[in-house]
Structure formats: structure tokens, C-alpha cells
Amino acid sequence: MAQTxxxxxxxxxxTLLVFVVGNGSxxxxxxxxxxxxxxxxxxxxxxxxxxxxxxxxxxxxxxDVTLVLHFLAMQLLVGSLTLATVWNFLxxxxxxxxxxxxxxIRKVPTLMTYVINFGVPPLLFSQVLYGRxxxxxSVLIGFYWISVIVVLTLTYFxxxxxxxxxxSGRAWWGYSLLSWVGVVYIAxxxxxxxxxxxxxxAWQPLYQASGGLGMIFPTGDPSTTPRFLFMLAGGFxxxxxxxxxLSTFGNEKPEVxxxxxxxxxxxxxxxxxxxxxxxxxxxxxxxxxxxxGIMSGTLTSSALWAWAVxxxxxxxxxxxxxxxxxxxxxxxxxxxxxFGALGTxxxxxxxxxxxxxxxxxxxxxxxxxTVVSNWSVVLLFLALFVGGLAxxxxxxxxxxxxxxxxxxxxxxxxxxxxxxxQNLMEEEDDQ
Length: 431
What we know:
Number of strands: 0
Structural class: mainly alpha
CATH architecture of the largest domain: Up-down Bundle
């Protein structure tokens, strides 16, 4: 009996150390969850016998970091595309509204590039840790999951078509409306898949109902709609902060910059407030065991409060920039986008905790994996990862400088053209 207690104590201490060191302190183990593990584990495929080449905490950390970058780019894309489409439809040629929409849509294809490239790493890290659940849910909606590739390709083409028409001074809202449908479709498929992977009890009935074709959407999950609306509202809000940033750090005409600043601040404040309401909805629809785990976990509870605080600060900064700030106020614009990004980081951590707690309640413990660390490969990967991020930042700086030079050259050419026209008119008057 003494030896058994000693073994249990060692296991408990080791588990606690893994959770603290590995950023997994939010997985507060519950006796009820332990009992459920033994009864529902059969619902998941067998664990891959190949051990992980790095600790679980490192995969989770990398997954969260890259997911934050993906969500930032994705939310900026969805909101910017929506606002630009409405403005282009309502605005007349050479109006501030039309010029503002053209300024925004020219940036959207570049945003899509980062959405795609930042979206691949977190998906791969999720497959490493949650492959038994994620692969299963992907197969169950396989028709729609594969269709994402086709829809994404067409959407990407349409975005470049919009930018091309904007550069030539033509309306493009019809193309952007189609691309918006494609973007929202992809977002909805991902939302469905990421919630379906948490519901092993729905896998067998869904497979039988679809006949193995993967053409039926799952039903009965109360969290799908609030999670989707949460991301959609956050996209509009963060894109509003992005418009504030564009109005200050971009190279737009003063009247266009003022238009982007005012409406960017309004949309950021309004939709970030709606995101908070949707976040409460997401939390309320979670099972009691997940809610308790979030609030009792050190990391998830801290991240939840961080998301709330930074979102409120982003709302305040956006309102000040919209109604009391001045065009070109870089501090307000940078503050709004920074607080919005930090809020995104907070909800990514909470989202990760919801996934782990939900799966744990159904017998899937992500921390129970065999690990054989290959640190030479891990360090090489980390060096390449950091170098890649630095290179992306360098490229963004180059693009910004190039855009500024092009704007200056265009302004000089326009001024020279006006001067030549004035001289020609004066010569005609003399004659």
C-alpha cells in the first residue's frame, strides 16, 4: 500500500511539472473526467506508434503562435473585404467612398497570401497532436473539406481581379461579392470541422447517414454558430483597427485617410463589442466541466481576462481615434491594432484550452503521448522558423517602402501633368 501511494505521489508530481513547464496548467484534472476516459476512449482511432520528435508543450506553443498570426490575417481579410465591397457598391466614381474601397481592395490579395501561409503551420501542428480526432472529422465531411482547395483557388483569382479593376478605375464589387462568398464558405467549413473533431459521439451516426460519401453536415452542436459569429464579429472589428492603421501609415489622399480613420474606428469599436458578446455566448454553451476547467485553470483564466481587457482597450482606442483623433495619429492607430492583436492571442489560448478540456472529457488526453525528442532537428526548425518570420517582416517593410515610393512618383507625375496642362492653356490664351 505504501509503495502504491508513493507511486501515485510521483506520478502526480510529475504530471504537475509537465503541466506547469509545458504551459498545460489549464488542464485541471477532474476525477469525473478520469472516469470518462476509461469508457469513451474506444471512440478514437489508435495512437500513432511513432513517437513525437519534440515535447507536446512545444508543439502546442508553436501551434498557438502560428494560429494567432493566421487569425490576425484572416480576420483582417474577412472584414476588409466586406467593407470594401459595400463601399464600392454604394460609392460613385471618384467619390471618397469609392477611392477608399479601392485603397482597401488593393491590399486584400496580399492579405490572402498571409492567410494561406500562416494557416498551414497551425493545421499541421494540430494534425500532429490531434490527428486521431481531426483526421476523422475531416473524412466525415470529406467532400466539403476537399472542396476548400477549389474554392480557395477561385477566390484568390477573384481577389486579384478586383485589385486589377481597382487599379484601372473600374467597379469591382461583383467580383468581390463572389470572393466574399468563397471566403465565408471556407471559414464555415473550418468551423464545422474544428467542432466536429470534438464530438466523437456524432462520428458513427454521421458516417452512416452519409453512406461514407462525406456530403452531410453534422447537426446538434450548440457551439458551432456562436463560434462562427465570434470569429466573424472579430474579423470586422480587427479590420476596422486595420483601416485605422492604413489611414495613418498608408499613402492615401487626406480625404480618403480621414474616411478610413472615421469608419475604421467605428467598425472596430462596434464589432469588437459584439465579439465580446459572442464570446460570452461561446462560453455559455460549453459543458459545465469545460467551463469549470477554463475558470480553474491558471493559463486559460488569465488568457480569458487578457482577451476581455485588451478588447475593451481596443474599443476605447478605436472610439477615440474615430471621433476625437486626428488623421495621421500614429499612436492611436498602432494602439488599437496592438490591443486587438493581443486580444486575439488571448482567445487563441482559451480556444486551445476548450479543445483540450472537451477532448479530455471524452477520453482523449493530448498530453499522453510518447516523446523521443530530437533536439538537433528541433533547434534547426526553430532557427528556420524565427528566420522565416524575420524575413516576412523584412518583406513587409520593403512592400511598404515601395508603395510609398510609387505613391510619391504618382503624385509628382500628376503635379507635372497639371503644370503642363496649365502651360498649354496659357499658350492658347496668348495666341
